[in-house]
Design a protein that fits this description.
274 residues, mainly alpha, 68% helix
Length: 274
């Protein structure tokens, strides 16, 4: 247990990024994530909004609880009470620590925008934080506290994203896209300021750090201005592209199912999206 939690440093050599151990480990989490999302999404599809929201509440509690436990343990393990500065919720994936609770507990347009934000970025974060997390799996053994908690929190983000669309909670209203942009840009600004003051590499705005962002970093020669601007621009492009694909799928399904019940349209739409 001491070795699993990393007290005194991990004694085992990391199996490596994209090793079979890494791929098997994260695939197990992805299977559980998708299975639970489909089962619970379909179960609560025709329930009241209050009942649907219970799953979001539990997701918010679990993801924040695991992250808080990780921060406390990291501070104890490193014997540095300020170690939490390196675990602020300022990565793209960790924004869900705030947006999932917003989706669960807020109301009105803020809630709609938060639901859409989780829907749009939850799956992306789940993939980036598991299969493409070269920064973690190159540094820690696969079966370690750091990688396990990371896999759990990223899987919760992906689960919540799928659950939202399968249960029919997404709105994807065009008027809320400004709020979605505002949420993302606010975190990007906060992350960049934290990177300069700490310093650190939140949102991977300073370097690729073993992730696919290294491709962009190398292409621009590590330019400290151009590189972070491209990273932020890609986030915004992803939002626009995701919404465009979503609207295309919905419009095609609506045209195909024209004349049938709206309930059947929604079922077909969400099954196609999943």
């Amino acid at each position: 247990m001491k070795e699993f939690f990393g007290f005194g440093g991990y004694q085992r050599e990391p199996e490596g990024y994209f090793s079979w151990q890494h791929l098997l480990f994260v695939t197990c989490f992805m299977i559980v994530m998708v299975t639970l999302a489909v089962i619970l999404g379909r179960k609560y599809r025709h329930r009241s909004d209050k009942e649907k929201n219970l799953i979001l509440i539990w997701s918010a509690i679990l993801i924040d609880s695991f992250e808080l436990f990780k921060i406390i343990l990291v501070c104890i393990r490193s014997e540095d009470p300020m170690a939490w500065l390196l675990d602020l919720p300022l990565f793209l994936c960790s924004i869900q620590l705030i947006t999932i609770p917003l989706a669960a507990f807020s109301k009105g347009r803020v809630r709609e925008a938060a639901l859409d934000f989780v829907f749009i970025f939850g799956i992306l974060g789940a993939v980036l934080g598991t299969y493409l997390a070269g920064n973690n799996y190159s540094s820690y053994p696969v079966l370690s506290f750091d990688n396990t908690v990371s896999a759990i929190t990223h899987s919760i983000s992906g689960f919540t994203s799928l659950y939202i669309v399968i249960s029919g909670m997404e709105s994807m209203k065009k008027k809320n896209i400004k709020i979605t942009f505002a949420i993302l840009l606010s975190f990007c600004v906060a992350a960049y300021i934290a990177n300069v003051l700490i310093p650190y590499n939140y949102m991977f705005l300073m370097a690729g750090d073993g992730t696919p962002y290294d491709i962009i970093y190398n292409l621009v020669g590590g330019n400290p201005v151009i590189y972070p601007l491209i990273v932020v621009a890609l986030f915004l492009v992803y939002i626009v592209a995701f919404r465009a694909v979503y609207e295309l799928i919905v419009s095609k399904l609506s045209a195909h199912k024209h004349g049938s019940g709206s309930e059947e349209n929604n079922e077909a739409k969400d099954e196609a999206l999943v």
